[in-house]
């Protein structure tokens, strides 16, 4: 049996809250019952069947087809199973997810993997701002799991991130801002002021970066633990991500304790 | 329109009705006597023997004003986690321990409450507090204005301005802020905090002005008595939450020397320091003195387990508690030289000795204080727990075996430190009606038209199914009426647009005091006196609001 498939009938303009569409919540429901579930669309409650065509299948392998960026909070709070998004995902995919996997074939909206604690999110295209970040007023961003972005990261990737891994091609402004722990790996370069307000954690950059003045240059090192990270990435099916094991180490942000580090490939 | 509620089991303590079968008649929003001329009702609702009580009245619930908003801003995650959609005339809202205004109104009405009073309105925040309360649907409301830590009051005392001037200032403040009563928080302590004081006991001289909390308390109590304000001074005493504050509480009662006093959230002021944990229940001794002192009334401020947020004007105690904040963040601030504010999120855990004993101490007070007319059911929302826990609390009071089951879940050290297990008292329905409605109405002096079901009373009515499970019974009244209109059925609000009135007092006073106040404003405040004063029209708001002025015993204005 193939995966349970939801095909968007036509692009929607108002945001749709997809949080109730989770493998664990759909288990044991018939296609008809699933069609009757109500989703919040703008300020209305709309039956799922009105928005999506439902084809029965294994809910543990949920497929959402012909998506558009109005589909928000896909996989929010999910604990297990897999969601494949064949198209773009709107804001907040994998918000607070605890396990399982989300694969986005297109681009992802802002706050991908925000406050997640486990599981993996793979985005083939770009991810907008605040990947793995904390919600407004939240104390921690992601606390576990991984967000692997094939394209580029937007601004403020890993804001207030506490643990886990974020991967991207390049990063926007303030990558790793206010970071408390975890690892952000940017294969290319990033825009200005990476690591601003960083307490702890590691931001690895493939290219040079204009780090804030509150970072101290520790010189060039051959860091043994990067081999462990490479092996970890290989476990996630990612090879050849590492530009170099020789890195220039900058520690900071000294304005926030200074226990974080930016590693720039040397 | 004449409406008849047929075959009710009426609990109306103010009129001495205890479970009598009968009808309740309503006309033009008020209760009326059964028509003598045999006129037929235009509408008859069969209550089928259900329990009928006046609408609930919460005399101490932080539902408006500055610190509630600060709590909301401090806890965005709470509001993200608890969201209520609008629809069917309902407005959307959010929050659990610091719910938004509409959510507050709906949640109270669903439980059969028709009035709630904000107990700590800073004069500087009065406008915002009233506007916020105007937003709360379905409830009558009012506010107690905070005095006793403000610079002008302490200046007057230090100058030896005399009881007339003090009373005039108190009355002027009640007028200017559209308040119903006066509250004092940690007398002199908040002011002392600003001079780096971390503790101020009843007979300690405060810094700068050199005035003791005892003097502040008795002066304010005398002023209110002079003015004839119906609700006595509403006191959040010294040393809130400090183990060993039982001595302070007993001394405070004695210090009043027979003057009327309302001790609020007394549970937080009933801690001894015996035992291995240096924390024990002093409820028996305090209840004994309260039982012997007819001048004392109180509300409990029961603690219930779970996440909440504590919001208090008592900066001193909140700074002390800040290290226990959960989640780990808090706010403390001064507000306009009038008082302070501290907001500390808090999670009461049943496995924690102190929290569990706080829970037991509250219940001990409920059960040991004999006169239900002098004790009001509160959780000091949200400080002890959100008000939505009231039905559970009612069940704890009415059902001894349930209470003992809950007690059995607590750590052994707690069970050994409390006499709760041996207390056999169970509240009757009549007593619950007293502590949740009739008593608060009487304590506030609004009992002429509120809190009872006699002719002339406002038709604020709650009808409950007589379930054996009292929690279920009080969580979901079959019918709730506000001003004679059905506003909720079976726990679902059906008239969400209903608006309540604002209750105030207007004691007479010598307007000459305004010159002294104006001088203070000119010298120290960032607001002009004329814009500080809250006009009647602001409450009336083009007919959207309504004012109910309660009579004071003193000379009229």
From TrEMBL, chain A:
Instruction: List GO molecular-function terms, semicolon-separated.
Output: formylmethanofuran dehydrogenase activity; transition metal ion binding
List the InterPro entries: Formylmethanofuran_DH_suC, Glu_synth_asu_C_sf
Q: Which SUPFAM superfamilies match?
A: Alpha subunit of glutamate synthase, C-terminal domain (SSF69336)
Q: Does the keyword Oxidoreductase apply?
A: yes
Q: Does the keyword 4Fe-4S apply?
A: no
- Keyword line: Oxidoreductase
Q: What is its EC number?
A: 1.2.7.12
Q: Which GO terms describe its biological process?
A: methanogenesis
Q: Which top EC class applies here?
A: oxidoreductase
NCBIfam families hit by this protein: one_C_dehyd_C
- What is the recorded name of this protein? Formylmethanofuran dehydrogenase subunit C
High-level lineage: Bacteria, Pseudomonadati, Pseudomonadota, Alphaproteobacteria, Geminicoccales
TrEMBL record, chain B:
Which residues are in the Amidohydrolase domain? Answer: 43-488
Q: Which Pfam families match?
A: Amidohydro_3
Q: Which domain of life is it from?
A: Bacteria
Among its keywords, does the record have Mitochondrion? no
Q: Which UniProt keywords apply?
A: Oxidoreductase
The catalytic activity of this protein is classed by the Enzyme Commission as: 1.2.7.12
The UniProt entry, under InterPro entries, shows: Amidohydro_3 (IPR013108), Formylmethanofuran_DH_asu (IPR012027), Metal-dep_hydrolase_composite (IPR011059), Metal_Hydrolase (IPR032466), Metallo-dep_Hydrolases_sf (IPR050378)
Molecular-function GO terms, alphabetical: formylmethanofuran dehydrogenase activity; hydrolase activity, acting on carbon-nitrogen (but not peptide) bonds
**SUPFAM superfamilies to which the protein is assigned, alphabetical:** Composite domain of metallo-dependent hydrolases (SSF51338), Metallo-dependent hydrolases (SSF51556)
Q: Does the keyword Transferase apply?
A: no
What name appears for this protein in its UniProt entry?
Formylmethanofuran dehydrogenase subunit A
